[in-house]
What does this fold into?
Amino acid sequence: MKIRIPATSANLGPGFDSCGIALSQYLVIEVLEPREHWLIEHDLSASIPTNEENLLVQTALQVKADLPPHKIKMTSDIPVARGLGSSSSVIIAGIELANRLGNLNLSVKEKLDIATTIEGHPDNVAPAICGGFVVASYNDQEVSYVKHHFPECDVIAYIPNEELLTKESREALPSELTFGEAVKASSIANVMIAAVLNGNLPLAGKMMEKDLFHEAYRAKLVPHLAAVRKISQEEGGYGCYLSGAGPTILMIMPPDRTERMLKRLKDLDASVRLDVLSVDQEGVQVY
Ligand code: HSE
It folds into this structure.
């Protein structure tokens, strides 16, 4: 059995802790033979445990404590600590692993409630489960969500070489906004969401660039955001935003502008990883 989970990009600018899309980069786990102790074979970072300390197993055991140990092969092209949902992908893999090995028959809603309780906010785990564009709210220990197809487009990920931990990036945020600021910030988010649902990417992208909840406070941690956004605007990108807590920057693109944009971004910094992705509309897959 294999379980495949997509990368995700949270926030889409103003949809802070609420909106996310799934992307065509994947974590794949292959469940191999049962054994006495858990063994996770991977060629990811040396700091990722290969025994039951691995987040995959920790999550699975949190869902069902008496799961039989297995050997598992783990591969991933989702970069770690770059704002593309790498830890969420492992959490979803762990929940699905428990679901299948433990014959739990969990619903999407049950998986989402468990994953959000672990992660603290739903904007990566929800699109990782559902695919496409997900708008979710986590209140009183309950997730309410809507999944929708995201309009066709290219997505360019500008992935800096340095990691940025979510914890550090959240510490840069203010503890309060004024009532007036909150009204303005939420109106921008509301129009962004409505525009995506209408298939209006030019308007959605414009709103993605007007976030008032977090990007300005994080700018000192991602100084390249302003330069990348300027290029995106000059080259006809729909919208450019900080992916999750950063440092990756995502550009939502009309496909005929992608090549020219890539050239401009390479000219800006040839050492940065640039991936051209699409939106994964399916979410977690088991095969
Ligand atoms: N919404 C979260 C943030 C996503 O921006 O901090 C990262 O986990």
Remarks:
- The domain at 154-277 is CATH 3.30.70.890 (Alpha-Beta Plaits).
